[in-house]
Write a structure and sequence with these properties.
Two copies of one chain form a homodimer. Chain A contains 23 helices and 30 strands. The first copy, chain A, has 682 residues and is α/β, with parallel strands linked by helices. In chain A, a hairpin with a 4-residue loop joins strand 28 (660-668) and strand 29 (673-675). The longest helix of chain A is centred in the middle third of the chain and has 19 residues, at 437-455. Chains A and B meet through helix 5, helix 11 and helix 16 of A and helix 5, helix 11 and helix 16 of B.
Amino acid sequence: MDSSLLPFFRPNGIVIIGASTSPQKLGYGVARNLTQSGYTGAIHFVGQSPGELFGRPVHKVLAQVPDPADLAVLVIPAKATPAAIQDCAARGIRAAIILSSGFREAGADGAALEQQCAALARLHGIRLLGPNCVGIIDTHLPFDTSFLQPPMPPQGGIAFVSQSGAFCAAIVDWSRRQGFGFSQIISVGNQVDVSEAEMLSAAAEDEFTQVVAMYMEGVSDGARFVRAAGTVTERKPVVALKVGRSPAGEKAASSHTAALAGSDAAFDAAFAKSGILRAATAEELFDWARALENCPAPAGRRVAVLTDAGGPGVIAADALTAQGLQLATLGRAARALLAARLPPAASVLNPVDMLASASPEDYAFCLSTLLTDRGVDSVLVILPPPPMHSAESVAAAIIPVVRASAKPVVIALLGSHLTASAFESFAGARIPTYPFPERAASALGALFRRAQYVGAQRPQIAARPFEVPFRRMTSSIDLLAAYGIQTADLRLATSAEQAASIAGEIGFPLAMKIASPNIVHKSDAGGVLLNVRDVESVLNGYTQLMDSARASLPQADLLGVHLQPYIFGGQEVIVGAVRDPQFGALVMFGSGGIEAEALNDVAFALAPLGSDEADDLIRRTWAGRRLDGFRNIPPVDRAAARDALVRFSWMVHEHPEIDQIEINPLRVLTTGAVALDVRRGP
Amino acid sequence: MDSSLLPFFRPNGIVIIGASTSPQKLGYGVARNLTQSGYTGAIHFVGQSPGELFGRPVHKVLAQVPDPADLAVLVIPAKATPAAIQDCAARGIRAAIILSSGFREAGADGAALEQQCAALARLHGIRLLGPNCVGIIDTHLPFDTSFLQPPMPPQGGIAFVSQSGAFCAAIVDWSRRQGFGFSQIISVGNQVDVSEAEMLSAAAEDEFTQVVAMYMEGVSDGARFVRAAGTVTERKPVVALKVGRSPAGEKAASSHTAALAGSDAAFDAAFAKSGILRAATAEELFDWARALENCPAPAGRRVAVLTDAGGPGVIAADALTAQGLQLATLGRAARALLAARLPPAASVLNPVDMLASASPEDYAFCLSTLLTDRGVDSVLVILPPPPMHSAESVAAAIIPVVRASAKPVVIALLGSHLTASAFESFAGARIPTYPFPERAASALGALFRRAQYVGAQRPQIAARPFEVPFRRMTSSIDLLAAYGIQTADLRLATSAEQAASIAGEIGFPLAMKIASPNIVHKSDAGGVLLNVRDVESVLNGYTQLMDSARASLPQADLLGVHLQPYIFGGQEVIVGAVRDPQFGALVMFGSGGIEAEALNDVAFALAPLGSDEADDLIRRTWAGRRLDGFRNIPPVDRAAARDALVRFSWMVHEHPEIDQIEINPLRVLTTGAVALDVRRGP
């Protein structure tokens, strides 16, 4: 951890500036929470009404506060904050949490005030968390600088880093009846200084933190976030709920890539690159976090379902399949053991249905048997309110089996009233339960994807793995060529006669395309002729292209006609990039042609790409999978497409001045791949 | 309701056969539940141990039971059931619920026993519910024939019809802490006689039932189910969780249509045709049911979000968009009222963020204002544990506003501990609450889709809207032609010379295709030549097609080569049908060609199709939307495609001997649409 952040996590003494003796005020709640939190360091209060609060003096000014004091918590009006920051500087305090609101979120005046605070903090070397946040709660140290209603959340292994204070408050309150706890709650507020990336790294360093859950609306620095998250996920899982999915088209989309990217593709790509599991809903965020906190990693995707009723077993089977998991095929030994134990009408295939008569001992025996089967990577146990026994007795029987297992087990604990006591037992044993099979299956899916990420090879790509010559690159074609991407020779003719002469040099057949900076979709404007086979066609073609361009776009500036060898065969794909304001160059691969946007058969990844990443990107699209051949479509040179993609990704990575660029199509041939057209925007 | 079902819902006297004085036995639980249920009709017990049970005599045999007695509940071993059915017949009882298990679900012996029961019931005119079920609970009549742990679920407007008894039990127990109740619980078990379709209709007739929720693993008669459900959904909403989604390929897929259909497409199509809202998860099933039970229908998709915190508002906005809903644009008057009421830093755009200081009165005022705005169709209120006020006081302030409104309002009530009392208030007022904004948004989505369905025109198509001549139809081409689908003239040549002669009659250009019953994918086998322009090419082409077919599929039976006029231009689509064992002909429309399966740009609907249904099917695919033109792809005759689809759907509907048939491609031209190739399977 950056040493400047240490006071936020290991403070020797905390000063609450704005402590109040009036229970209506937030400054009272903060004082109450910190005092009651069990914090063993020094606690100081500074406030306007002198006297005593929770057995401690309320100082009039910060200068009066004795040592130790290295973290300030500000609960004062926004406009008083700059002065308080200066007081902190004078008192030698180098870390402050600004709980107050009334800053950037409140309009222009607040934003100016926020900038003033930032400037003062920089000047004095003070780190600021917030403003407009809930503060930090650490359940193990412990301490609580928030004003949330007590009690503190229970101890647990989930660190929650949130860009919404209200969501923090809601989650802390919600979790009280969900059977799980937190190591830390970190509310980052407006992030005038300390960023979500820094807090992610810091939270992951905590020894009690098993998993970091994040609520995000944006990032303060995309590259920094990806780097920080990538480092964290090497050791601990991170799950994130990213909201604020703005629809495509924030940026004027002058390319298919930009039109398809929207702002969410960049976050998807950033999370994929840094190994963050992206949850779709708030509920899923914590469903996953609880499993990741408490379960070992599964070795594969084969899941056994253990149930005492058919219906919920079918629900589980469906949901597991939807998660990309597989129903395990049970081994002969396991099936024999199960068959010997269970009534004849029971199913010893997967899902294993023990029938409603299943006893606690049956549950334990069958679960042990499944966990011993080498073909089983994890188990989903379904426990409805059992008709013959109490759910609590089943819980008591299987908890030791789950705890002794090196394979993950999650419980779909159905009902609520009749299973309340079993719920408490599982929570106490840190075995994740879910009210429905679908949510249990989703948690197993997250465990599997995490295990897959941990197991995958991720060679660190420190530098570009190929040479780029130093030379003047005046056009996009030059640039592609410099990065070793094969392009088709492209020559400009400004008259029909010149076209005929160039055709003589290039040879037939050739392709002719209207050349105009204003015509984005050439074929739409009747601006493309393919497979032109003789001089007469070139002469006529020139006139025809110019005429139809003039007819369809009268204002367009027409430079003439490009001529290019016409290349037969192969398959066409699109390779594009758009610069995301947060994460840099976002590379796209997929189905090109004029229907690119309609088909939406594309995938995105952050540049630069390693060879494996490029392969993965290709395989995520139908256009990419088809490169290996399909039916009577012969296979083409996928390695060449991958190579072009890697080179392209480095090109856009190293040329930040490129906002949008797109090869459409890249023609992938039996050997090699050629960029037939390239367009740069905006 | 079929009068034979009346005793299940309005019994004058219930006999429990297998009543037991031993609390360990299910026969005790059933007696206990019925006695305690508040049932005001006659209650009789028949059991082996004579004596008294809950103040009533236990009769030794059914014949001893006095009048009235018109419904029997059987809780006896499976093998004793046939005799008990005969006893019922002798006693004049015409309706029986068989709770016992040990029938079909237990193997071959059980299945035989079940058939024996069915035969006896038919013989004596007795209706059977079950076996292997939980029975019926009616909270309003009231009565309870189940053995589920008491108490009965609270009263409510949801009827739950379930094919899983265990899932019934779990849901009843779960709902106790969810703040909602049921009108009826109907467990249909193995459905040896009474079907889920009959119970759906019966449940919907209940005056207290506002919505029917179903758990389904299959249907006993697809056509009957669609008919029954379609009738119910004209008056009351039906939501269903259908599980057991088997992967594609149960049926040998000799067509793209069959490969793409799987078994789930049929259920999707059946639910769409009958107006059932299909939930993806168990949680969603009841999230939707609660909203449909209690909320008025929204007039459109424009939703206002009212919140006191930014984060949850953003989550809601994302989720609403994902549901296909829109954030309402607030009117000037509403914005002015909001701005006058709220602090300057509040947002009076949508989501309306009142800030954390929002009082209960602010909530009520702003909600009223939003509900009065003519541009708002529904409101999603977000209520986190409020920092300054109690959630309970906010609930008290807004409940009258919600109840007085003709527009739907749902509440995202975050937290749990601090909002527990507000939760009870909303539940008492029958206002649906959800623990997270995403689930509230999903409920609004269901309300909108239901309103859309109710508002849509659905002309009843009683008969085929066109004539089909009586004539001998020897081939698929004849069949298409008889139903008025234009086909390209297709002539078989069995020698190169004959091909040349036919070509002379048809004229050039033409298409040549290998003719073989064994070659399914002609182009894969090099069996297609297009745009053949002269006699020499026909002669060479014949040899070439026969040679490549022999090379690629040596065992294929080659009939010769088909010749056909080569038709230029237009757009190609696929039109197919596959016979679903439950629902009959399932029609597919979408992107054809050899990549049909890979692109998966297809949609399904049940035959026969009305004109509007056909249009809808077309619009659900990219291939269909493209018919109206896209970029430089000119529009074609969509009406002709729709007409062909309607005719095709009647053709497959009226020819049940067709298992699979596929037009690939249907070439849609500037005027008209022509079936270029048709394949029938298996």
